[in-house]
Amino acid sequence: MEFFSNLSWLYSHSALISPLEWIAGLPWTGGRDLGMMLTMGRVMRKAVFAILGLIILTASAPGQGWAEKLFKEGVTYDFGVRPRGSQMDHSFPITNIYAVPLEITISKTSCTCVTASVSKRVLQPRESGTVDVRLDGARFSGPKTYTVQVTVGPQFVSTATLRLTANSRADIVFNPGQVTFGTVTRGQTPVQSIDVEYAGRLDFQISEVLAQEVPYTASISEMYRRPGQVGYRLQVALKADAPVGTHKHYLYLRTNDPASPLVPVLVESNVESSLSVTPSTLSLGEIKTGVPHIRRVVIRGNKNFRILGVQGTGDGIEIEGALPAMEETVHFLTFKCKLDNAGAFRREVKIRTTMQETPITVLIEGNASR
What we know:
Layout: H1 2-12, H2 19-24, H3 30-38, H4 42-60, E1 76-84, E2 87-95, E3 102-109, E4 114-118, E5 122-123, E6 128-136, E7 142-153, E8 158-175, E9 179-185, E10 191-199, E11 206-210, E12 216-226, E13 229-238, E14 245-255, E15 262-272, E16 275-278, E17 281-288, E18 293-305, E19 307-311, E20 317-319, E21 328-337, E22 343-353, E23 360-369
Parallel strand pairs: 1-8, 9-15, 17-23
Antiparallel strand pairs: 2-6, 3-5, 3-7, 4-6, 7-8, 8-10, 10-13, 11-14, 12-13, 14-15, 16-18, 18-21, 19-22, 20-21, 22-23
């Protein structure tokens, strides 16, 4: 029995182990036990080789289920009931639990209404990422189930199937399906709107918009009401202090519909800094201690600004010359880097300006030797 339980262990771990590794490095007393089994007669010997052959065959066959082990939070997601036209997003966390790098690719989706992408194409051992899925509620109606096949490889290949369910109800319609601000410079406050229309027997009402801890303000107003039909307009504005970065949030419309008391609305934006620094990383490479190296960066703004100060200098990093005194849209800063100690070097220098409260950062790194 111990022999067959060991074979079961070997089968469960065979997906990322070559047949030669199985034989050369069995984590059990297989060499001795296998020899004993082979001496028990021709019938047992044939059975042993049949089992080993089956393991080797299944190890090389694609589609084994070990890829689903990478999705610790599961491979299914239910969007619930959503208005017709709404855009539905979900991210499946994925973690490489094995000791070798894995390539993650989207091999197939069951419908053109489903799009999927991976945050990282290659996951190193213990590294995590996401499989990001979007379901277009304008492309179907009623309850549906769709799948996304995620293939993991390349040496040994396995495929995980992600399952998505949603119910796109035709009596509530979004136009457009989401709020998209696109790329916006920090400080700007663009406004977008969505028309929410209901057609049915209910005296449909939207009482408020829930928009807590999001970089947006929102309001809802009734456009028309007639027997069996009602229309609202949702207006969403990006806040002036929205942080730099990509944002994806859901706002929720509170309704009197028992089937959908909270209706989600997807809002996306990409906020860019009003300032940019080029290059943002000064790579010194391999340098000698005590030898000065000069590097320059360019700081650009969308309007005139002045540099107030630089934090993080000293200990081998200095600014050449005085800081620019005039307000300009473009400034140049020259760094003098003279390292006295050998070894790897990494320093963040923060540049404060009149353009924004948050400083911009320049990373200086290298490796010094004597």
